[in-house]
Specification:
Elements (H helix, E strand, L loop, with lengths): L7 H14 L1 E2 L2 E2 H8 L3 H10 L9 E6 L5 E7 L4 E6 L13 H9 L16 E5 L2 E11 L4 E6 L4 E7 L11 E2 L5 E5 L16 H4 L2 E9 L4 E12 L3 E7 L7 E7 L15 H4 L5 E8 H9 L4 E3 L2 E4 L1 H6 L3 E7 L2 E6 L5 E6 L4 E6 H9 L5 E2 L5 E2 L2 H4 E6 L4 E6 L5 E6 L4 E6 L4 E7 L4 E7 L8 E8 L15 E7 L6 E8 L7 E5 L13 E2 L4 E2 L10 E5 L2 E9 L2 E3 L2 E5 L3 E8 L8 E5 L4 E5 L4 E7 L4 E6 L12 E7 L10
Parallel strand pairs: 13-18, 38-41, 40-46
Antiparallel strand pairs: 1-2, 3-4, 3-34, 4-5, 6-7, 7-8, 8-9, 10-11, 11-12, 12-13, 14-15, 15-16, 16-19, 17-18, 20-21, 21-22, 22-25, 23-24, 26-27, 27-28, 28-29, 30-31, 31-32, 32-33, 35-36, 37-38, 38-39, 41-44, 42-43, 42-45, 45-46
Bound molecules: sulfanyl-(tricuprio-$l^{4}-sulfanyl)copper (K7E), (dicuprio-$l^{3}-sulfanyl)-sulfanyl-copper and dinuclear copper ion (CUA).
């Protein structure tokens, strides 16, 4: 079978030869094909995705997990799921939200002082160097509670959550500038930027959109809120964004819908949002010079809102950094081509994508060739002065990704349930393929970087309907792997997505990822620093002060030290545990009965569990990872003696 993977012509020949001669188990290949009702084409597709044991995937994909508040990591072309990365939601396997270190990360994501245990993750972005994925960091936004999560790809752990100080709803994040100077986030539904109440009658004056540029410090691996800024935008529902690259580096683009500024409310005797938001013929693409905006902020031209630097619309217009271009109604994706020369916008209610030319936009700005202004004084460039070409693709174009071949793009067609392949330089459709069903985003390998890798495309379908074994009314979504290496797109594989609704996925060549297999001894994986409470085997100890017991322990095959911890009813008990293993994949877990504790201690990691021992009793603790033949013996007891009783000799 190995030969099959190498060359399709040779594979086809081999296949016909081997039909009768190859026996696998009790049957020949021919018998097997008959029994499972498989065609030769099916076998070819299988051979293109099948990965024998121990084999590696060529690409790793990072999918947002939608309502699950997590991310999903899977391989391409095998479509095997490797891992979830918990970001905004507790996840016990990884101890996320169960150890003190990760609780601190989750606590960074408090909104209005409230702990949130979920997020609506939409768009992951991998950090870039000169516009190419560099495999160091991953960013993901939360649409419901405007936040960005930062994941370090050396251990696939979330290390930071930042809360947007001026937004109440967002969508256009996370997108990075070509050297990850900034992580972009835009609003969705407008609201007052100061977070205060304003009546709907004051919508046009008090409600606003915004775009935030979060400053990323690569050395520290952290977003720096104090060096980040926003630009105030009109109360249009802002949607997706993308950063320019190459010639358009320094600019960003975001589209918007409901530029009617319509506020529905059947309760108020008004037609619903969707009616009022469809009155105009076009919406508005926003074109922003972020490099100049950053200089203006440095020069003190911003005002503070909730302690955060915001450039007003007025300043942005005066300084010439904000422009609008009419775009197809109800747009969705806005995607900059790998060479940075074109900006492709899909309009959900349209049948064509609009390919805007960056050169033409710049020429119009230079010549001050504006057709009008919006109600906030922002200059509008006439659509025909900015347009390169419109390509009729089919109904409901949404998102666009790029091929390794120049001028070749793929756009999802939501209404038609298809992917269209086309030449965006010439404006020519090249191929179309049906998917199942109702595609949202799509992803090609490194397909939004300056060097897309081609080869595969994944269709992120919103509906699966009849594609899988029924598992109840809530269906998994269907990610369909498509071979794009030839002229015709070929469907290879359907993967049910078991966790939430991925909106977008990014895939990176596996050789760019260098994940570690162990931590430097005694690491707090969330701060990425030496954990102050880590200890070496032999120096374990228990510190006691009135009302408080602190345990400094280790885990190594096959014991937990200490094995008995005795405390008094009412004590606060904190376990600081270090996995002393150096061997690959020797993770130990740590669970205590009845206290909602589970830690994941990978080799070298230190994590802490804090409980209040408020009920006398006997509480077994144990290792939750099957780590050796004596795994079941990795156990111990937390003894909580009644208040006022004397400590036993052993404690
Ligand atoms: Cu689902 Cu990008 Cu949030 Cu489109 S978004 S489909
Ligand atoms: S025992 S290796 Cu936990 Cu049933 Cu299984
Ligand atoms: Cu350690 Cu099981």
């Amino acid at each position: 079978m190995n030969l099959l993977l190498k060359c399709s012509a040779a594979a086809a020949a081999l296949l016909s030869l081997s039909l009768t001669s190859t026996a696998f188990g009790a049957e020949t290949l021919e018998q097997l094909m008959k029994r499972r009702n498989l065609t030769q084409k099916d076998l070819m597709a299988a051979a293109k995705t099948y990965t024998p044991t121990g084999g590696r995937d060529e690409f790793l994909a990072f999918a947002s997990g939608g309502q699950a508040g997590q991310m999903i990591v899977y391989g391409v072309p095998s479509m095997r799921i490797y891992k979830y990365i918990s970001v905004f939601t507790p996840e016990p396997w990884q101890g996320f939200g169960f150890d003190e270190e990760s609780k601190k990360v989750l606590a960074q994501g408090k909104v209005d002082g409230k702990d949130l245990t979920w997020g609506d993750t939409h768009h992951p972005a991998i950090s870039e160097t000169n516009g190419d994925y560099d495999g160091q960091y991953l960013f993901i936004n939360d649409k419901a509670n405007p936040r960005i999560g930062v994941i370090n790809l050396h251990d696939f752990e979330t290390t930071q959550i930042v809360v947007n100080p001026i937004m109440r709803s967002e969508h256009g994040g996370a997108f990075v500038t070509p050297n990850t100077e900034y992580v972009i986030e835009t609003t969705q539904y407008p609201a007052p930027l100061d977070g205060k109440y304003a009546p709907l009658e004051e919508f046009n004056d008090k409600f606003r959109g915004a775009i935030t540029y979060w400053k990323f410090n690569r050395e520290k691996g952290k977003i720096e809120p104090e060096n980040s800024f926003s630009i105030e935008l009109p109360p249009y529902s802002q949607d997706l964004a993308d950063a320019g690259k190459g010639p358009s580096d320094g600019w960003s683009f975001n589209n918007s819908f409901c530029t009617e500024r319509y506020v529905g409310g059947i309760e108020r005797g008004r037609p619903p949002f969707e009616a009022g938001c469809s009155a105009n013929d076009t919406d508005l693409l926003h074109v922003i010079n972020w490099k100049k905006a950053a200089e203006l902020v440095k020069a003190g031209k911003a005002t503070k809102i909730n302690g955060h630097d915001v450039l007003s619309i007025k300043t942005a217009v005066e300084e010439g950094i904000l422009f609008l271009i009419p775009e197809s109604k109800s747009p969705h994706g806005v995607d900059v081509s790998p060479d940075g020369k074109y900006i492709i916008v899909g309009g959900k209610l349209d049948s064509a994508v609009s390919v805007f030319s960056f050169d033409k936009i710049m020429a119009a700005i230079k010549d001050k060739k504006f057709s009008s202004k919006d109600p906030y004084g922002i200059p509008i460039i006439d659509m025909k002065d900015a347009l390169h070409v419109q390509v009729p693709l089919g109904l409901g174009p949404l998102h666009t990704q790029f091929d390794s071949k120049p001028c070749v793009a793929y756009t999802s067609l939501y209404v038609d349930s298809m992917v269209a392949k086309y030449d965006y330089c010439e404006g020519k459709v090249l191929d179309k393929i049906s998917i199942h069903y109702n595609i949202g985003h799509l992803m090609t390998m490194e397909g939004d970087s300056v060097h897309p890798k081609g080869k595969y495309l994944v269709a992120l379908n919103k509906l699966a309907i009849d594609r899988f074994n029924p598992v109840g009314p809530l269906h998994p979504q269907n990610h369909q792997l498509i071979d794009i290496s030839g002229d015709k797109m070929e469907l290879l594989y359907d993967m049910p997505v078991p966790l939430g609704e991925p909106h977008y996925v990014v895939a990176i060549s596996q050789d760019k990822l260098k994940p570690s297999v162990r931590y430097p001894y005694g690491t707090d994986s969330r701060t990425e620093q030496k954990h102050p409470q880590s200890v070496r085997p032999g120096s374990e100890r228990i510190d006691r002060s009135p009302g408080k017991v602190e345990v400094f322990g280790t885990l190594i095959r096959s014991h937990i030290t200490p094995e008995i911890v005795e405390v008094e009813e009412g004590d606060e008990v904190i376990f600081h545990l270090t996995n002393a293993e150096r061997a690959e994949d020797e993770t130990h877990g740590f669970a205590i009965n009845a206290h909602n504790i589970n830690l994941s201690l990978e080799p070298g990691k230190t994590a802490s569990a804090r409980i209040v021992a408020d009920r006398p009793g006997v509480y077994p603790y144990y290792c939750t990872e099957f780590c050796s033949a004596l795994h079941l013996e990795m156990q111990g007891y937390l003894m909580v003696r009644p208040k006022g009783t004397k400590a036993t000799a052993a404690s």
